[in-house]
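Supplementary Methods S3. Complex input for the beta-D-fructofuranose-bound model.
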Amino acid sequence: MNALTRDLIKLVDMTEEMMKEKEQKEGADYREKLHLMPPVGWLNDPNGLCQLNGIYHAFFQYSPFNAEGGVKMWGHYTSKDMIDWEYQGVKLYPDQPFDCHGVYSGSAFIEDDKMYVYYTGNVKLEDGDFDYINTGRESNTVLVVSEDGKTFGSKKELMRNVDYPSDLTCHVRDPKVWKDGDTYYMIQGARTKEDVGQALIFESKDKINWKFRSRVESEKTFGYMWECPDYFEVDGTKILSASVQGLEGGVWDDRNVYQSGYFMVDGNILDDYKLSEYMLWDYGFDFYAPQTMETEDGRRILIGWMQSWDNPIYPDTQRWSGMMSVPRELFIRDGRICQLPVRELDNYHINEVVYKDICIEESVQLDGVSGRTVDLMIGLKGNQYTKFRIKLACDGRRYSEIVYDREKDTVTFDRTYSGLRKDTLCTRRMKVSNRAGEIKLRILIDRYSVEIFVNDGEQVMTSLIYTPLDASGIYFESNGKTILDVKKYDIEVL
Ligand code: FRU
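Predicted complex, serialized as structure tokens:
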């Protein structure tokens, strides 16, 4: 290890230590109870999600020195149940010539009780002939192995720009690996010189020597760059997930700048396939660059970065930015992918409050239903209303609102009055399936985040709110008779 790396490690430790001391003195009310956050500074993509010998690992893109980001390293959390996480420190520093400007995103592949971590070593070529799109960076594919999930061996550079097809720009990154038969496959996101977003597939017999095999793209050009691709099966359905940059026009004008979604894959992804239309993982403001893992008991879990590159709305005084979504179990129902919080969350439910078939005609607050760390399940019935509103994180002046429009079959999230101090977009809307006015909402509120799961996970909408914590009221409001079921739990993670 060279002297600079040693200093970097010290600096990270000191920064985290200072933050811890500050929190011990002043409290840490800004921390989510349940969601993963950086100890200090900036967090983006989840990386290297896996389960090794019973323990879950979640690494993340981390820049501890600045809430606005900076050079990326991999921070590390572990957990026995995906809910209660323990911070383990930084595991991968940008300490090699091939990753000196960032240990970028990547994945973990488990075999023979070992963790094989593949990531992109980012090197920015800022001198000389700098061209950000075509030639301005090295995107090196790197492997590093851990035998215990705690310590890592030496990094090995596997591929460089020259090893990728020559019609690509320097934007090739975010390897994810799987095995089929006796062959290993790696998928990476890419941008061609013609501005076509696509995924590349490489193959290997030994996890070390890789060669380009094929590419995956949609029939018509779909965005200019696919980040963080992932390929996996859910209940026998093949899924290609990609975080796509450069979608504009039509429906995309009403959505986030960068999208994360998936295609269902018909056929063989290696050579003869057809991609379905692209479906969003999440319709809220704050969900990007998700990655999946398979648990030892065979579940497919998705975790996303709750925020995105173009919407940091956190208060200027805040020393951190970015968090992870709740881990979500994926399953297929009626031919579509559904997502629900992992079942382990139920073990943290306390203070159950239940209301059944109550009739609401105006604005009500229900005894026992309030709070900023709650799991709220709601069922709506009836045909005498057109709009049903749930106001949460309320203090009389501030609130965020979820509106179900029974006539239009839409769910809207509105944070206009959440106490935002930035001039930014405030509403997101999604069409939901028509169930003759019967709709189910599960709303996971954790201090500054709101994840809305509609109709048992058919659709999800995730957004951040930075409303002060004393705003904890929850109100229900209807413009006609609505029959309402409510189940509410507080969530306690010690
Ligand atoms: C996605 C992404 C990845 C990249 C990483 C850098 O959010 O842009 O493509 O590896 O973030 O932090």
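The first strand starts at residue 41 and ends at 52. The chain has a mean pLDDT of 95.
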